[in-house]
Design a protein that fits this description.
With 412 residues, this protein is of the alpha+beta class. It is 50% helix and 13% strand. The protein is built from eleven helices and ten strands. The strands form four sheets. It has a four-stranded antiparallel β-sheet. Strands 1-2 form a two-stranded antiparallel sheet. A two-stranded antiparallel sheet has the order 7-8. A hairpin with a 2-residue loop joins β4 and β5. α4 packs antiparallel against α5. The longest helix is centred in the middle third of the chain and has 62 residues. It is rod-shaped, with a radius of gyration of 35 Å. The protein starts with a helix and ends in a 9-residue tail after the last helix.
Length: 412
C-alpha cells in the first residue's frame, strides 16, 4: 500500500512541475529572450520482482530551442535593422533635395520662379539669359540673372552643408551604437561566466541563458552577430567571423572616422586590438552604408560638387569669351569663396559682377557691346546642349534625387 502511495506521490510531483513549467511559459510568452521550457521525465526504477518501478521523476526542466531557427531570427533582425538605418539615411538625403518641378516643367511654367528645388533654380537661371539677349542694355534683366545665380549658389551651399551635417550625425550615431555593442559584449561575457558557474554547481542556468539570449538578440539588431551555443549553456558571439565573446572574455570594438578635404566622411570598425571587423548586418551596417567613398551620402556629395564645378566651368568659359556692356573682356560669374576649387560648399557669385551687373559679358563682340546680347543668347542655349559634359548620375533614372538635378546636368 505504501509503495502504491509513493508511486502516486511521484506522479503528483511530476504533474505539479509540468503545470508550473507551463505557467512559466505562458507568463513569459512576450518576454524578449525567453526560451520555452519543458519538464523532462524519467521512470524511477524499482526492486519489485515483477518489474514494477517506483514511479516517475523530473530529471530537468530543459529549454526547447532550435539552433537553426535562432540563427535565422538573428539574421532576419539584423537585416531589418540594416535596411531601416539605410532608409533613415536616404530619407535624410531626400530632405536635402525636396521634390519639385522637373527642370523642363520649371522652364516652361509661368510659376517657375517659385520653384525652390535645385533643378527648378537651374532651369530659371538658364532661361533668365533670354531676357538679357532680348534687352541687353536694360538693367532689370541683368539683375534678374544675378538674383538667379545668387539664389542658386545659396541652395548649393545649403545642400552641401546639410549633407555634411548628415554625415557628421551619422558618424556620431555610429559611435553611440558601437558603445552599446561594447556594453552588450561585456554583459554577454559576464553571463557566460555566471552560467558556467551555475551549471557547474548543479543548478539550472535557464534564467541566465534567457538573459544571454536577450543580449545576443540586441547585438544582432545592432551588428548582425552569429551565436554558437555551447553544451553548458554559454555562447560564442562573433561579428564578421571574428569571435568577440568566448567564455568570460569579451573583445570590444572601436570606430575610426575621418573627413577628407572634399568633405567625405569615412568610417571603419576594428577590435580594440586593431583587427578590422566587417559589419555586414544590423543598424551599424546600415549607417555605415552612408559613409565612405562608395557611401550614399558621399556619393551625393560628390555629385553635388560636380554639378557646381561643371556649372561654373560652362558659365565662366562662355562669359570669358564675351564682352561687357563697356566692351571689356568678360570675367567669371562663379568663384570659390576663399579661393581654391569650386565645390557646392564654396561656389559663389563674383563680387565684382554682383556689385555692377553691367560687367556681365552679354556681348559677343566689343563693338556696340551695350546693345549686343548674342553671347547671352548663346548662354541661354547651353541648357539644351548635350555636350555640356556634366557627370553621370550615381543613381538610376527615375529616382527622386536624380529628378532634382537639371536635365542639362545629365544627358544619359
Amino acid at each position: 500500500m505504501s509503495e502504491a502511495l509513493s508511486i502516486a506521490a511521484s506522479a503528483i510531483n511530476a504533474a505539479t512541475t509540468e503545470i508550473a513549467t507551463t505557467s512559466e511559459n505562458l507568463a513569459n510568452a512576450q518576454t524578449p529572450g525567453y526560451a520555452v521550457q519543458r519538464a523532462q521525465l524519467a521512470p524511477l526504477p524499482g526492486g519489485d520482482p515483477l518489474g514494477i518501478g517506483d514511479g516517475v521523476q523530473v530529471t530537468s526542466v530543459a529549454q526547447v530551442t532550435s539552433a537553426l531557427l535562432s540563427a535565422n531570427n538573428l539574421q532576419a533582425q539584423g537585416t531589418l535593422q540594416s535596411l531601416t538605418a539605410s532608409q533613415q539615411i536616404l530619407t535624410g538625403i531626400q530632405n536635402v533635395f525636396p521634390l519639385g518641378q522637373s527642370s523642363a516643367a520649371a522652364a516652361s511654367s509661368a510659376q517657375g520662379s517659385s520653384n525652390t528645388s535645385i533643378s527648378g533654380q537651374l532651369a530659371n537661371f538658364w532661361s533668365s539669359w533670354d531676357a538679357i539677349a532680348q534687352d541687353p542694355s536694360g538693367a532689370a534683366p541683368r539683375t534678374q540673372v544675378l538674383d538667379q545665380a545668387q539664389g542658386l549658389t545659396v541652395s548649393l551651399n545649403e545642400a552641401a552643408t546639410q549633407l555634411s551635417q548628415l554625415a557628421t550625425n551619422t558618424a556620431n550615431q555610429l559611435q553611440g551604437q558601437i558603445g552599446q555593442v561594447n556594453g552588450l559584449l561585456t554583459q554577454a561575457a559576464k553571463l557566460n561566466d555566471q552560467i558556467a558557474t551555475t551549471a557547474g554547481g548543479g543548478t539550472s542556468p535557464n534564467q541566465l541563458v534567457d538573459q544571454l539570449n536577450q543580449v545576443t538578440g540586441q547585438l544582432g539588431q545592432l551588428a548582425g552577430v552569429s551565436v554558437q551555443h555551447q553544451a553548458n549553456g554559454t555562447a560564442v558571439v562573433s561579428i564578421g567571423g571574428i569571435a568577440l565573446v568566448q567564455d568570460s572574455h569579451a573583445t570590444t570594438l572601436q570606430l575610426a572616422s575621418s573627413t577628407d578635404s572634399a568633405g567625405v566622411t569615412t568610417a571603419s570598425v576594428t577590435t580594440d586590438g586593431g583587427t578590422p571587423v566587417s559589419v555586414t548586418s544590423g543598424s551599424i551596417a546600415g549607417l555605415m552604408s552612408g559613409l565612405g567613398p562608395q557611401g550614399s551620402i558621399s556619393t551625393y556629395q560628390a555629385s553635388l560638387n560636380n554639378v557646381a564645378a561643371n556649372l561654373a566651368s560652362v558659365v565662366n568659359t562662355q562669359l570669358e569669351a564675351g564682352y561687357t556692356a563697356a566692351g571689356a573682356a568678360g570675367s567669371a560669374l562663379f568663384t570659390a569663396a576663399g579661393g581654391g576649387a569650386i565645390t557646392a560648399a564654396t561656389i559663389g557669385v563674383n563680387p565684382t559682377i554682383a556689385a555692377d551687373p553691367s560687367q556681365i559679358a552679354a556681348a559677343a563682340s566689343p563693338t556696340a557691346a551695350a546693345n549686343d546680347g548674342s553671347n547671352a543668347q548663346t548662354m541661354a542655349a547651353v541648357a539644351t546642349k548635350p555636350s555640356v559634359g556634366f557627370p553621370s548620375p550615381p543613381y538610376p533614372a527615375g529616382s527622386p534625387a536624380r529628378a532634382q538635378l537639371p536635365a542639362v546636368a545629365y544627358q544619359n
